Amino acid sequence: MRTTDTIPDLLVKNLPRGLLIGVEEALATGAKRAFAAARGMDEGHLPHVVGQLRHFHMNEAFQRSLAVSDASPSPICGNGIVTGKVGVFRLARLNVHQGIWNNGRRSKTRRRLARVNISIEPLVQPDFFRENIPPAEAVVFFVACFSNSLQIQPDSPISIQVAVPDPQMRYWLFKESLEDFAKRYEEKVVTQDDLARPKLKKDIGKRVDKDGTTL
Fold this sequence. Notes:
Layout: H1 7-14, H2 17-38, H3 46-68, E1 84-86, E2 89-97, H4 108-114, E3 138-146, E4 159-165, E5 172-177, H5 178-182
Parallel strand pairs: 2-3
Antiparallel strand pairs: 1-2, 3-4, 4-5
């Protein structure tokens, strides 16, 4: 069966809006806890300490938010990546700095996760020689983007993006801020023109005098 869905369509169908809100709050909370825990460390290695603590605290917060949303979170294990599952999507997360998002490919686990998106790639680049069937599985990342400087908003992401990588994790098939993506769930009020026209009954509005004269 051929699908006409776009990647955003598929995301909206599979990911509950409440899950997105929970993930957004969790990642922001984890980032704040990480920065608070790093206070007092020497400035010489503070960026590295903050980066490490962000991974651990945001991993924990992400795992809990997935559990609350019944998204089958994987257990926390060392510095491993926490994932979840909703519908056809495997859920994962990634921290980046402003600019080019090039650190996703450094992780073998993330590259392995991205391979399944070979089934979702045709939604962006249709293959006209074969049917585009609905994907059975895919992966989406929640990407927390931080400032390049700890002098600018060090305790929280500048933005959190919903991002779907290509199968080799070289580029992004789709990415959009959570704030903008959440608007896709808003119900569109469809207004229909009132085509009904009042129709007066025959002779309505006419008054007849006592002598039979129409007034």
